[in-house]
Amino acid sequence: VATQPGVQGRDLTSFLLQLESWSNRHHTPLYILRRDQQKGFNKLEPQGFYDAIAAYGLPQTIVDFDLSAQSDVPYCVHTAYGLTEPLTITGVTKQGGPISPLKSTLMTSLGNHWLHDLFQAHQDGVIISSIQHMDHREHVPADHLSLALAMCEATDDSLLIVGSLQSLERSCLAMERFQAAYGWLTNWDKSAVFILNVPDPPVSLLLPSVLPANPASQVVCMHSVRVIPSHVEFLCVSVNDPLAQFARIQDIIISFTFPHLHCQLPLTTLRRIISQCLVSRICPLLAFQPITRTQAQQLDHMIAHLVHDYYRFPFHFHSTLLSLPIDLFGMGFPSISCLNDTLALQGMLRDLNHHIPAFRIMAAITLSDWMCSLNHCVYPLDGPSV
User: Fold this and answer.
1) pLDDT tens for the chain, residues 1 to 386
2) Burial class of residue 250 in the structure, from the number of CB atoms within 10 Å of its CB (0-12 exposed, 13-18 middle, 19+ buried)
3) What is the DSSP string of 326-343?
4) Helix axes 357-369, 336-352, angle to 10 degrees
5) Which of 65, 100, 179, 236 has CA atoms 20 to 30 A from the CA of 342?
């Protein structure tokens, strides 16, 4: 995500939401391993970037330029007593450098290609397609589409997506050996396995890895990883879990307070405060994970209670009056319900017209299943109520 121009974090969470919904519709088991890398691009060997340059046929001058930029670099450590004497460092990927995420992406892309090769060799990869495609009854163009998945990445966090426990163990060990060759190790305490549509999932799983002290050894060590069977968590978002998102937004509204002054603020000032200090925090959360319309209306009621309690009105006004435009005799406050509906619709249109093929194909397959399975083969976006 960090190195793809025009890609937002909500694109990946929407992709995972559609993947989880696809698994539920097709009753297909999914094993998803979230691996959190030990922090610091300085742990990443520059050789991984150089191998990617050679594998993709890019000019050798890129490698020569990077070698010259990382050779004999003077560093000073800032202490409480001032700067230390310069330390000369060679061959270390700079933490926080503008090119560090690109180096990481190119290096891990080699592992992604290797995973696809392993899945093709064992014929056990996850391939996304519509219900009509699986039944060999294609009747719209989207039914001819399919998408092979192996791994999703967001800088130093990644997801391995497989369809069986055996495939998960094999893929995990392969990626552990791949990244260990370039100096990266997994932080197993922050890692987790998401198991979907599997009866009686275990509480934890033992997954193979390499020895941190000797990554080149063929000895395999096992790590216990916790299992989450209900939903996927990625980028600090509980994917396809509107209740958790609702509880998070509810806590924000409950903890919100207006400034305490010697006089009451006018209604226009309260509207500006709520728009800039409260709704501005809620909008990004709704973009990542929309909530149900009923939950959004409950949040509107909570905001109306904030205004009511501040002015100490003798009666409770309807929350719809608070969000009505001023020209319709309302108060003009922002509405969480309208924002939620708008962000959900804009997100769907963005996915269907995305410039990255993987996001666009997944959205087209979801729309095809929506049309044929839930809407009696009627295009759902062509009605007057949309």
Assistant:
1) 656 778 888 999 999 999 999 999 999 999 999 998 876 566 778 888 899 999 999 999 998 888 887 788 888 888 888 898 888 887 676 666 677 778 888 888 898 999 999 999 998 889 999 999 988 888 888 999 999 999 988 877 889 999 999 999 999 999 999 988 888 888 899 899 999 999 999 999 999 998 877 877 888 999 999 999 988 998 888 888 899 999 999 999 999 998 888 888 888 899 999 999 999 999 999 999 999 999 999 999 999 899 888 888 887 777 788 888 888 887 888 899 999 999 999 999 999 999 999 999 999 999 999 888 888 888 888 765 44
2) middle
3) GGGTS-----HHHHHHHH
4) 110
5) 236
**Helix residue ranges, H only, 138-292:** 165-180, 242-254, 267-273, 280-288
CB proximity list for 177: less than 8 A, separation 6 or greater = 210, 215
Beta strand 237-239 with 232-234 is: antiparallel
In one letter, which amino acid is 88? Answer: T
- Cα angle 7, 187, 89 (rounded to 5 degrees) comes to 85
Contacts of 5 (CB under 8 A, 6+ apart): none
